[in-house]
Amino acid sequence: MNNGIFRRSTLLFLMMCFFLSSCKNNTEQQEKSIILTGKPNVILVVSDDHGKDALGCYGNPIIQTPNLDKLASEGVLFNNAYCTSASCAASRSVILTGQFGHATGSYGHVHDYHHFSTFDNVKALPVLMEEAGYVTARIGKYHVAPESVYHFQEVLEADPRNTVEMAEKCEGVLNTDKPFFLYFCPDDPHRGHPFKPEKWDMPNTFGNKKEGYAGVETKVYDPKDVIVPEYLPDTKQSREEMAEYYQSISRVDQGFGKLMGMLEATGKIDNTIIIYISDNGMAFPGAKTTVYEPGIQLPCIIKDPTTRLAGTVNNAMISWVDLTPSILDMTGIEYKPEDFHGSSFQETLETGNADGWDHVYASHTFHEITMYYPMRAIRSDKYKLIWNTAWSLEYPFASDLWASSTWQGVYRAKEQYYGNRKVDDYLFRPEFELFDLSVDPWEAKNLAQEKEYAEVLESMKAKLKDYQMTTRDPWIILWDHDNSMQGTGVNL
Predict the structure, then answer these.
(1) What pLDDT is attached to residue 481?
(2) How would DSSP label each residue in 204-273?
């Protein structure tokens, strides 16, 4: 064969190969682009015991949370967001199922001897998203059971107190070619072990270490600078513990910032829904394990690239029971609204219109197995009713809260007041507590026995009963010992 013809034939062959290869690569890129833009990714960050009190974007001028503040400036900050139960496991079950814990068997903690577990016929958010084609991954605190109900395809391992390390372990998920759902759950700012210090007046560490954590800049706060809310005693012990609490939150913020930087590097930040919440209020008596406002009113910041309302505040009253249907709605995954107790708030996220979002419910039964104290509550835009079904019992303490120097300082000194409440009123509660939050935001004055509020009380009771019936709450029997809803429990 003539060498010139051979060279031309070879060149033509190579050009055809390059053309076909180029077409194949372009097709793959187009398919990849369709995958990435057709379904938004979702990152749900759930911190542990982080109250609304300790974030710069919620008005705290002392704490340093620049990365979460940036998220608020680019997204929507919800000012009236609530968990349904101020207890870690119970709250997380609601976040991932869209159903109240009293209806799913998620009454309290799942670990150790507590051993509460969600009914196995429940289908949780990660399973629904996997069925819709999402890669699902979790890292950090899990605290729900059984695994079959809350199944994630990937379980990533890292020190849950080092959110920077946690973020780094998520690189593979962030770079996947498929849409992903990442459930990112630090242990911070939960109280650290040991819960009972060597000396009673030593502050809990809240996971902080003198040597710090790799990749994390330690932010130390002076106890004199912290902001002590009215429901806490303004004491040396309280301020020292709050300083540790602030430090732990700053660690969460740094890890969140690291995660966002990694996401941006992938080019997917404009196709990712980012949600930051906490499971319940801060781990101090008067917040965590209660249904008072500091226990259940929490931070909620959502950045949805499709919304035009960046940097806005939304006053809609939303609940963690609304999260699962909202995430399904935001990702375009079909679902049956009747499968959930909550409702999608996607519309209010997009429009900012809070009309109709004017009440939430709370349902707390256990924290630890030894802490039986069922409470049901309804919170409207003005009033809040708490029904303490076990009001004849002394209010139980979580083991870490009892051992806290904040509580021990008041208890050992036999002080009359703990914050804005009498110690006896905190420990021994009436059956009903009614508050006018428009004038009493810290819930210090119970109006349940005031004649002028009798009509309000009865109206709120009726709404609470309807809610319990609708959500099949077994504790509805305690209103009048009517067992018609769930039967007698006797096999005939």
Answers:
(1) 65
(2) P-TT--TT--TT-------GGGS---TTS--SHHHHHHHHHHHHHHHHHHHHHHHHHHHHHHHT-GGGEE
Query: Residue 253: exposed, middle, or buried by beta-carbon count in 10 A (0-12, 13-18, 19+)?
Result: buried
Contact 226, 246 (CB under 8 A): yes
CA geometry: angle 241, 289, 247, nearest 5 deg: 25
Is the confidence at residue 463, as pLDDT, over 90?
A: yes
Residues 420, 443: Cα–Cα separation, whole Å? 9
Name residues whose C-beta falls within 8 Å of residue 385's C-beta, 6 or more positions apart in sequence: 377, 378, 432, 433, 434, 448, 457, 460, 461, 464
Question: Which structural domains are found in the chain, ordered by start?
Answer: 35-380 (3.40.720.10)
Separation between Cα atoms, residue 445 and residue 435, nearest integer Å: 7
Question: How does DSSP classify residue 396?
Answer: P
- Establish whether 57 is a catalytic residue: no
Neighbours of 168 (CB within 10 A): 17
Q: What is the pLDDT of residue 30?
A: 40
* pLDDT, tens only, 35-52: 334 799 999 999 999 999
* Beta strands per DSSP E along 58-130: 76-82
| Dist. CA 435–CA 447, nearest whole Å | 6
Residue 476: burial class (beta carbons within 10 Å; 0-12, 13-18, 19+): buried
Residue 429 has pLDDT above 90, yes or no: yes
**Locate tokens 């938004």: which residue?**
40
* Cα-to-chain-centroid distance, residue 177: 28
Q: Give the chain's mean pLDDT.
A: 91
- Residue 394: DSSP 8-state: P
Strands 41-47 and 154-156: unpaired
- Of the candidates 57, 83, 88, 170, the residue annotated as catalytic is 88
- pLDDT at res. 482: 55
User: Measured between alpha carbons, how far is 102 from 478 in angstroms, rounded to an integer?
Assistant: 14
**Cβ atoms 162, 215 nearer than 8 A:** yes
311: left (phi over 0), alpha (psi -120 to 50) or beta: left
Q: What is the pLDDT of residues 297-349, one digit of tens each?
A: 999 999 998 888 889 999 999 999 999 999 999 999 999 999 999 999 999 99
Residue 186, preceding bond cis, omega within 30 degrees?
no
pLDDT at 170: 98
Question: What backbone torsions phi and psi does residue 76 show, to the nearest 5 degrees?
Answer: -120, 125
Q: What DSSP line would sit under 299-312, residue for residue?
A: -EEEE-TT-S-TTE
Q: Peptide bond preceding 146: is omega within 30 degrees of 0, i.e. cis?
A: yes
Q: Cα separations (Å) of 126 from 35, 152, 183, 202, 331?
A: 19, 6, 9, 41, 13
Is the backbone of residue 206 left (phi > 0), alpha (psi -120 to 50) or beta?
left
